[in-house]
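Question (not urgent): is this output format expected?
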Amino acid sequence: MKGAWTDTIAAVATAPGIAAIAVIRLSGARSFDIINDLFPSKDLKNAASHTLHVGILKSGNVAIDEVVVSLYRGPKSYTGEDVVEISCHGSPYVQEQVLQACIAAGARHAKPGEFTQRAYLNGKMDLTQAEAVADLIASNTEASRKAALNNIRGGFSGKLKELRDRLISFSALIELELDFSQEDVEFADRKQLYQLLDETKRTTEALLESYKLGNVIKNGVQVAIIGKPNAGKSTLLNALLNDNRAIVSEIAGTTRDTIEEVLNIDGILFRLIDTAGIREHTSDVIESIGVQRSIEKMNQADLVIYLFDVNEMTEEELRGITEDFKSRDIRYVLAGNKADIIGEDNALEKFGSIPGIIFLSAKNNDHIDKLKKGLTESVLSGEVNTEDVIITNSRHYSALLQVRQSVIDISAGLDAKIPGDLIALDIRRCLHFLGEITGEVTNDDVLDYVFSKFCIGK
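Got this back:
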């Protein structure tokens, strides 16, 4: 057990507001004593673990609510301590009365994430699994749910733990060699160490590469719809959302400011931004401000949909726009709108030398699915496989960069045949950063940062 407390914490574990049922959670050494004082219907101090009990909860002689009490004796509980969960009616007033009764009986208010923090400190999960709990609570797509659940099950930490254990064994053998330095012996097989370092490097690089996908799954993709006035940007936004979200008219410059909406495509959130049409000269002050904001949104976006009217745009002009995007390292998708007017075959012929254009009609809802597919393909390399280990956490990413550099340094040291004590130092550095990810090496500042992002009650 990494931690132990003499106090007992309490908090509402369900979302705030009116609901049919709410849950108040207790964890700590006095959980059973506290509930026994509040639940006169029966003696719960010696009741079996993992049992449910129905009765009236009272504070002194005042009945608060009819509740269901769930008992979990440590260490077979979420936190590893004695845990009690009180299911009461979901009135905010009733919730507060139950919580205050627990506090009056000897508990204290839990801090954000303190239940999960106790689970980690009591060895019920490692730090990556604890962070995945927060990710699962915050998940808003199927892909983010699966990625978080896989990490809760230990998919990520399991890979790292195996590598760390094997590196520890080699480190011990190399340090043992130092005790026999006079005899010039080698206990650590250098060939096997090279193989382990190669495996560690490949695993680390695969995890680092997965962060691109993980960031997309967790945070979504900011997409700016850019184009000239009257290219059909607002019509396209409405078509993508299947809703009349933006005002549409034949008057150029109708959209004066940015409009933002969220679209879920195959488990990925695309944060769509419909911008004012970009043109170099306008006498309208309000429109001019909107154009400037459009340019700002384009520069901030992860991806740009450049929408153009195939009837008005020339091939030479479009090529110049794409070259400008490339020079500024802007990732983009080209969408040729109003293709129904000249026909898709004629549009293809007109812009034949520019690859990757998706021809569509936003007004008629033609080929909108092709554009959606193009959006996902532009941010994902291949199919989203959330059964694989995917890094979604910037803290893990930073530590893995250090692990990779440590592996490179160890390999370089072996090549240069540097003394064993220096190789041991590099291995210890690698072990430090692996342990920092899983929480085997940590400090209070890291824990405060991780668990401060949790909601109270979890």
